[in-house]
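Treating backbone geometry as a discrete language has practical consequences that deserve illustration. No coordinates are needed to read the tokens, only the vocabulary itself. For completeness, the protein is quoted in full, as a sequence line and a line of structure tokens:
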Amino acid sequence: MEAVAGMLLMLFGVSHVSECLSQGEMRVSCSSEGGDSPQYSWTLNGRTLTDAELLSGNNETNIITLKQHVSGHLVCSVSNNVSDVFKEERISTCGMKTCVGRQDGTKCYGALGGTVEIQLGSISEMFNVKKNYNSTEHRLCFLSNGTFRINNLSRNDSANYTLQTFDSRGESSFEWTLQLFIQAPVSSVLLLSECLSQGEMRVSCSSQGGDSPQYSWTLDGRSLSDAELLSVNNESNIITLKQHVSGHLVCSVKNNVSNVSKEERISTCGE
């Protein structure tokens, strides 16, 4: 069959890859699988991104960098004259973690160098925090909405915090302990693939830095199955795929304060 002159291939499948940068900015890339002459557009919470939110790029590029403290419902749309697809993602501020810390024994996590906000209770209450050292008190503050904030988190901020509330007479009414854990965020991810002697494919996934990374894999948007995996499982950083497995492979790496991913289009070994 002869190709029709001027025919455009339809777009299909859009993927997001987001990465937190050193100063708290977020780089987000958007790519489609196949399709001719793709055109890109972005929205945040249902509206076009503004200059106050964009550090680099614009609403018509496939890679943008968002300024610090930008969060919300981000959508990348890709279109050409014959098709239109999109990908949506809920993005959180890089380095900012929030937890509800009113119950005794609550575990909270903060990103190294970032900020943690611990929601304690009603703004009508008064609070006090006890900790074993005082060298970072200038980074600690209570907000008017009953939130306890620590900025510029360091390893030394990992500790047990004893919190107290006081009534209008200044008497202690409640006391509880909160555990705070500081982790270095995982950063950019590297994928390496290698064809083996029998046509299998070994793929390794590694992140640059980050504490306690956890790995997961998807192929064409779903978890890898036993029929596709020759060894290990979806939670390992090295997998071996059986012969004739191909498609859109994504490795995601996360810990309690960050989540990054890397994608690659893999073909059957030998093709």
